[in-house]
């Protein structure tokens, strides 16, 4: 781990710590055996007094985090549906000529490039995880296995012989330690008439929805529109429009270009609302930390109460569930097993909490009375699976944005 001494966006040395979640394991470092040795690392946040970026104080080695990855986009039906809408949004804002191409950074299994492939566009994905890049290739999405930055951008331009008319990076910028090299690469690869789309989990939604479970070592930055614009502007990129996304419980998509374009009314309204609601101010983030500790105690009491006399299982061994379980002190003694439909995770154990992960069919054969929905941002999808596939009628514990129970799922 490397401790930062200045802001990751504006290099300001006045960064103020406000939330310490303790030492935690890397969220995606699943264990082959429950007693395998594992490391724990500091997990805490600071706020920048200049650009107002909320950010992690410590940086893990990206090769350890991303070279072999467990999250597969296509396993979520929500993501698959959103990929179609995302394609429509992009097409409404960008002109992709017949000899142009679409580039996605951190393209995972190619789910979001697939609609462009079906529409006849030339595409290229770039992803650092060898196992996921190979999966995308098998699904018919050309993918380069590499970490993104200026060097990789120059390599792609040389190989393709041109720059991209549509470039997008979804849910990746917050993972990046060297934000400037990453955005410099985006600027270099983007055609002068092209459009760049960047999607990030929106810090205002994290703040208001108490999404402290989205804080883990992979997520180094928690962007507002203000902090994201400041980063892009430093590299000659101009935001002209904004949209929203259901991913991660609530994200924003900013659209930018190399040449300044007329800004939409939606963008101006978004800026004004963010300012009026004090999203970028330090006291509201101090309040976020206080509320998170109170929620932690409430959720643990609820789960422990249910587990006293009945069986509680988990559903969704997402990365964010690692923070929630470890921060709240919920381990295999309270929740013996978690269902997850990703075969890469099945048979492994969660980091820190040491809970076995199995396929949903095996977990539901245990006839649990309670299901703790750890991937709570997919609650509707998971409740539908429990009801329709397994005929489940017990209670569902939904941890966020407030801990609550859904009785008699219907």
Tell me the fraction of residues in β-strands, as a range: 15-25%
Mean pLDDT: 93
Helix tally equals 13
Strand order of the largest sheet: 8-7-6-9-10-13-12
**Rg over CA atoms:** 21 Å
How would you name the CATH homologous superfamily of the largest domain? Answer: Vaccinia Virus protein VP39
Strand elements, count: 19
End-to-end distance? 46 Å
Indicate the overall shape. globular
CATH topology of the largest domain: Rossmann fold
Fraction of residues in helices?
25-40%
CATH classification, class level of the largest domain: Alpha Beta
Q: Strand pairing plus helix content: what structural class?
A: alpha/beta
- Stretches where pLDDT is under 50 for at least 5 consecutive residues are none
Under the CATH scheme, the architecture of the largest domain is 3-Layer(aba) Sandwich
- How many domains make up the coordinates? 2
Q: Characterize the largest beta sheet: strand count, sense, and whether it forms a barrel.
A: 7 strands, mixed
Notes on the protein architecture:
With 410 residues, this protein is an alpha/beta fold. The protein folds into two domains: 73-277, 3-Layer(aba) Sandwich (Rossmann fold), CATH 3.40.50; 284-406, NAD(P)-binding Rossmann-like Domain (Rossmann fold), CATH 3.40.50.720. Helices cover 34% and strands 23% of the residues. The strands form four sheets. It has a seven-stranded mixed β-sheet with strand order 8-7-6-9-10-13-12, sandwiched between helices. Strands 16-15-14-17-18-19 form a six-stranded mixed β-sheet. Strand 12 (238-245) and strand 13 (251-257) form a beta hairpin.
């Amino acid at each position: 781990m490397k401790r930062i001494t200045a802001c990751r966006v504006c290099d300001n040395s006045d960064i103020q710590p406000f939330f310490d979640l303790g030492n935690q394991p890397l969220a995606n470092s699943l264990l082959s055996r429950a007693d395998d040795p594992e490391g724990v690392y500091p997990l805490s946040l600071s706020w920048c007094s200049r650009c107002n970026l909320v950010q992690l104080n410590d940086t893990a080695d990206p090769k350890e985090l991303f070279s072999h990855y467990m999250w597969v986009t296509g396993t979520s039906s929500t993501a698959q549906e959103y990929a179609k809408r995302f394609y429509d949004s992009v097409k409404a804002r960008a002109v992709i000529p017949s000899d142009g191409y679409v580039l996605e950074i951190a393209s995972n299994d190619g789910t979001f490039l697939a609609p462009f492939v079906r529409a006849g566009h030339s595409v290229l994905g770039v992803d650092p995880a060898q196992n996921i890049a190979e999966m995308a290739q098998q699904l018919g999405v050309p993918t380069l296995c590499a970490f993104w930055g200026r060097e990789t951008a120059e390599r792609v331009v040389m190989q393709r012989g041109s720059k991209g008319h549509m470039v997008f990076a979804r849910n990746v910028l917050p993972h990046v330690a060297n934000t400037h090299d990453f955005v410099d690469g985006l600027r270099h690869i983007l055609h002068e008439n092209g459009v760049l789309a960047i999607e990030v989990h929106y810090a205002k939604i994290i703040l208001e929805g108490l999404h402290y479970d989205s804080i883990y070592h992979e997520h180094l930055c928690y962007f507002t529109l203000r902090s994201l614009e400041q980063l892009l502007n430093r590299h000659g990129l101009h935001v002209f429009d904004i949209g929203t996304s259901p991913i991660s419980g609530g994200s924003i998509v900013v659209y930018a270009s190399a040449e300044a374009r007329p800004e939409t009314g939606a963008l101006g309204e978004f800026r004004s609302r963010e300012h009026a609601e004090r999203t970028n101010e330090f006291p509201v983030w101090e309040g976020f930390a206080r509320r998170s500790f109170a929620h932690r105690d409430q959720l643990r009491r609820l789960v422990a109460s249910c587990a006293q006399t009945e069986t509680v299982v988990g559903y969704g061994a997402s990365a964010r569930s690692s923070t929630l379980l470890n921060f709240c002190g919920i381990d295999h003694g309270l929740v013996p097993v978690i269902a997850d439909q990703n075969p890469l995770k099945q048979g492994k154990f969660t980091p820190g909490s040491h809970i076995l992960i199995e396929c949903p069919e095996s977990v539901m054969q245990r006839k649990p009375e309670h299901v703790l929905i750890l991937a709570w941002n997919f609650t509707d999808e998971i409740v539908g699976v429990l009801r329709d596939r397994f005929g489940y009628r017990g209670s569902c514990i939904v941890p966020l944005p407030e801990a609550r129970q859904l009785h008699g799922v219907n």
